[in-house]
Amino acid sequence: MTDPLPFDVAPWSIGLSGLDESELAHRESVFALSNGHVGWRGTLDEGDPHGITGSYLNGVFERHPMPYAEAGYGYPSSGESVINVPNGKVIRLFVDDEPFDVRRGEVHRHEQRLDFRDGTLHREVEWTSPAGRRIRVTSTRLVSLSHRPVAAVRYVVEAVDGPATMTLQSELVANEALPEVHPDDRVKEVLDEPLAACGAFVLGTSATLVHETYESGQRIAVAMDHTVSAPGRAIVETEVSDHLARTTISARLEAGERLEVVKHVGHEWSATLDPQALRDRADAAVDEARRAGWAGLTAGQRERLDAFWTCADVEIEGSPRLQQAVRFALFHVFQSAARLEVRSVPGKGLTGAGYEGHTFWDFEGFVLPVLTSTAPEAARQALMWRHATLDHARERARQLKLAGAAFAWRTIDGRESSGYWPASTVAFHVNADIAAAVLHYVRATGDDAFLRDVGVELLAETARLWMALGRWDDDGRFHLDGVTGPDEYTAVVDDNVFTNLMAGQNLEFAAAAARRHADRARDLGVTGDEIDAWERAAGAVAIPFDERRGVHAQSAGFTDHARWAFERTTADQYPLQAHFPYFDLYRKQVVKQADLTLAMFFAPDAFTPEQKAANFGYYEQLTVRDSSLSAAVQAVVAAEVGHLDLAADYLAEAATLDLDDLHDNTDEGMHMASLAGIWTALTCGFGGMRDSDAGVRFAPRLPPQLTRIAFGIKLAGHTLRLEVRPDATTYRLSDGPPVTVHHFGEPVELEAGHPLTLPTPPLPDAGPRPTQPKHRAPRPFAEALRA
Amino acid sequence: MTDPLPFDVAPWSIGLSGLDESELAHRESVFALSNGHVGWRGTLDEGDPHGITGSYLNGVFERHPMPYAEAGYGYPSSGESVINVPNGKVIRLFVDDEPFDVRRGEVHRHEQRLDFRDGTLHREVEWTSPAGRRIRVTSTRLVSLSHRPVAAVRYVVEAVDGPATMTLQSELVANEALPEVHPDDRVKEVLDEPLAACGAFVLGTSATLVHETYESGQRIAVAMDHTVSAPGRAIVETEVSDHLARTTISARLEAGERLEVVKHVGHEWSATLDPQALRDRADAAVDEARRAGWAGLTAGQRERLDAFWTCADVEIEGSPRLQQAVRFALFHVFQSAARLEVRSVPGKGLTGAGYEGHTFWDFEGFVLPVLTSTAPEAARQALMWRHATLDHARERARQLKLAGAAFAWRTIDGRESSGYWPASTVAFHVNADIAAAVLHYVRATGDDAFLRDVGVELLAETARLWMALGRWDDDGRFHLDGVTGPDEYTAVVDDNVFTNLMAGQNLEFAAAAARRHADRARDLGVTGDEIDAWERAAGAVAIPFDERRGVHAQSAGFTDHARWAFERTTADQYPLQAHFPYFDLYRKQVVKQADLTLAMFFAPDAFTPEQKAANFGYYEQLTVRDSSLSAAVQAVVAAEVGHLDLAADYLAEAATLDLDDLHDNTDEGMHMASLAGIWTALTCGFGGMRDSDAGVRFAPRLPPQLTRIAFGIKLAGHTLRLEVRPDATTYRLSDGPPVTVHHFGEPVELEAGHPLTLPTPPLPDAGPRPTQPKHRAPRPFAEALRA
Question: Which residues of A touch B63 (CB under 8 A)?
Fold first, then answer.
């Protein structure tokens, strides 16, 4: 780990003073803005210097060939990669013909600040040009939460110490270079300048660029217009060419005078609309933004965020950095999904091109539960997206000679984009993770219409997949052979406990849903025999248990294998996959990321407390956390089995993973699932929250480092907030009918307006703190979250 | 299968009358000539039409990038592909300016014939040109067994029915197109015109082209000169350019007169020699060939082949086609290796570019035993080649974080060229197969110097690999986890029986060799403790046995898995790998090629007769023979367990695999291991031959279809021939000291000049004939080998 960036600590924002070219890409990810439709990385207004420029529209990608040294049946022949759409962030400034460039002249002050309640990225710079003219630039950028296609920048430049002519070049720039997402030349070639011009238009001072991709069949329109306020006359001119639109704004300022420009940018894309229709929509978005005005846009941000925070805010006492980190994380998760409209959240959100912009299982597994509890409409939109990809998933299942639907392991539009089947195609658990997300959503919202219209089909088609995959053995158990669970250092195994339990849950829930909505199920061709078979299999999934060692085997035979030689592995040999061949990782006991431990979190009732404690201790010794998906899960289970201090350390790791760039790849974008995991570690870890058909269960306990946590969740549209203190927890239901929850196993009825405070039972002795592989213990909480 | 080519049936040759453009590539493979250094496909002299042109030098390849959709640690970044060297076969003919082209004019007769004793490819054509001139062309081609760099063509054209001017263009053609060996564009680009010109020379009438490859750092020189006999004056002119050398020979013939040209071609390559030195060598080869003359070259062929056939010939009574097929096979195997000189035999020999010209484990596993028994010097040369690649193998082991040497799964120069690790890197058994080849060679030859100088190092380094790969468990057994055995439909498994037994044999033999040559072992750093550890592990390898089913599990847990749905699999879904994903093949009981059955052949003493019978019956039901390596092995074990009729059917399949193009890919070259398997099925199957430290064991028994088999093997330089009849076998030792062999388990001492005839014991009842998966039973012998 290099030195972490010196972000300041504040309760509702995160700021950074100074500027160092080597850290730009990291900063740009942290300061990225999005609304789930548009994503703008936190680049400087003037575009240069930059780390990784990035302007994304959710769902826009280019299709590229997938190269194989040795191809095989069912290998996808093409893959998908997120591409840059025309960049509307750019506002270049010339001061008396000197370009404003932080690498030249003198920077007196440089500060960027992301505000979690305003939903803006604010920047202040004081700079003296090489010719000696001092200016002050203040820019505020937003990606609108209230107007889906809109992003905007308010840019103010002030002549500080004398007169100057200020010339702004505000641009839309197409075909900006992408970071290398794939080393293959053919892929690079396809992704180099992926946009072909369809038209470039000027209307008054507005400009619009329309492009299309060569292979993926998508069209993109980006439009801009400006509102200019100058003390005297300002000249405004707009020109366009195929890949550049430029509005030049020029004004003479006296000392102390300011030029203010508000840039409105509209973004639309479509796989079906013709260029003219698409252009009209982008232009309409700009018009709408201009009508709303800067005040309207910023009010819209505040309004949407206030509504979000009212329920979702997590208050922390005992660690200001953790307080900031959890709000920062919730802000990123929320903005990644605020205006999804039947699209998914990529692994990196819209904050970078990492993972080629793909969505993985951890969206449903880690991000969706947070949205379900705090912004359920966004969760519904994302599940609608999965449902919209059902035809691709059915086609994939057919190709694999299975039944039902096999959802893509990594994708943008729903088609499989994985090139290494042992860690993708056979990681069938993604299907059960989607089913579980449906279950959580329906439990939290009571949205029975969704269950009928969307859920039953998702559940039935995934249930059919499991039935085609599984086999009954003479032992009377239902087995799933040759699959890969969450742990990517163990692949193509039989009876992965996580997969089997999740498949069982999927089958059980599918049967219940099909019985509840029998008409809908019948329309989908689900027979009574089929439902019976689902139930039988659900009740009989094989769960390997190693009697000799007294722990569950992560998969059949896992605990018999040689243990990884952790003592001989040096700190710089992590992540292991970069230094050892897969085959050696696969055949030994070494765990990349929580797998059996995740099973204990996602299927809590399948294990006794004693099994949980024994399993956790056993797998802690094997888990190296080479994946960002692990720490939060380990925090949750550590807390459940009573290792609150260890849980706090894991929480701290999740909380600092992107801010401190622990995996050295935050440059490529924020880790959405890990950000979501911070919330999860707090609510499901220290809050002990688990959902169930009989109501949400809580078992709140604070770690020694914290004196108070408060958090809220949405239940059937109403807000339940918990305030956890060391000795007791207070439950507050905002409104609506009474609900039953469980406090340490005891059912409790909560009424709106009647807070209930319940004591925390004493913590049973959890035994000695579990140990981790050499070099892989988490940093202590106090060290990671030092103020 | 399309209609097989109508090859004629003859005891010592194979011929084909007529010509059909659609079958050219198949014919070219069957009629390919080689000496292990040079390989010439059986294309027509005039070059066109052709199926797949091909002129190879053993060891010449180009290096190309290996593309991966998702790369991983230890994946080879580049691969190797055989390329065409300048083609010296081409002799174009013009008859009064009309090109001789079998697609034009009228072909009255066209015959090609490969002669197994002459070592020549003979061709006769009678043709009338579109202008009405009738000619007779007789060409004989050879790749010299006595002069390593030399190939030659005697080309005779006769004016049949009137005077004509005959003009021959005899050429060397560089950069001829290769068939597509890899679908990736980057690979194709590298392999398109892979030769750069280094020089083109004329000296008198001779011509020499020198080229070099762009990436692999090899230089190639090919030279030619001609001996011309014409009734009158012949004009001979030679010209060269970068990629073409042409000698034009023109003569006027009256009706009945002939023009005879002998073309001598010399081939050399080197990774170190400069162009001039290489040119000199190629020129010297041509001079040498001219001095030997056509008579000398053909005498050399006959002499070498007579020597070979004296020991190696297999006589068959009862099936003329089988008689031809076995000699054809032995001829191909012998010529592929006759002049190896520290190189290997690729999977397709030098008969085509299939498998990119790579050598695999089946060379040591299938081809080397035949050479060891019939041409032991060739076997020695091939083992020297493996030894010469030890540094690459050590480097690979280091890269894989193992010890000793990890030999390449597929390679030309010893570097790993595999792109799919589950079916290559972890198929570690290749190392034990190499060790076994050393064992067989030493047993058959008694070549103790080889064992000391070459064998000990090969054995010790492979033994070290096994020790690094294995683990001791509490059960006191030595386990090998996460490997792939011969069956490529089952991958990355624990304790593959074949691998474990072969590894045990490797360790045991390494220990014995190290004790025998203690000085040499010490020089290699082998310690006494190390040898002890090898012996302990050798005696303790885990051998999974399924008590419930009473059979060995091919690998741990194999017999617990679901059985492939053979009943639902249609005939056109074979080979399965082209229609089903790997993961589904891997997790089910379905066997591509003999694996446990191969273990029973290669480690015969590890199984009781009852186990062999039970195992064979069990695995017959699962084995689909999607690999050409399977039928011969199944023949051997079927014969051993008493199913002689089934063994005969499998032998027939091996015997017709290339002649009838059963796998629809003989176009790309002959399957060397399958050809070798014909011999193996006869000698080890019906001869019951197995080697051992206590002498060779035989258990000869004829199938009902045959009345007599005779075959010979080399033992310590002397020839032992067996003549097997239904009721008895006669053993004849040519010369040398007495040897002990075993006849049906009884030791017998054989003396030179004293044939011994021993009776065949009655065949115990083998029970009902084992069954195969639907659609996958072998054709009956009588149908496959109908005359």
Answer: none
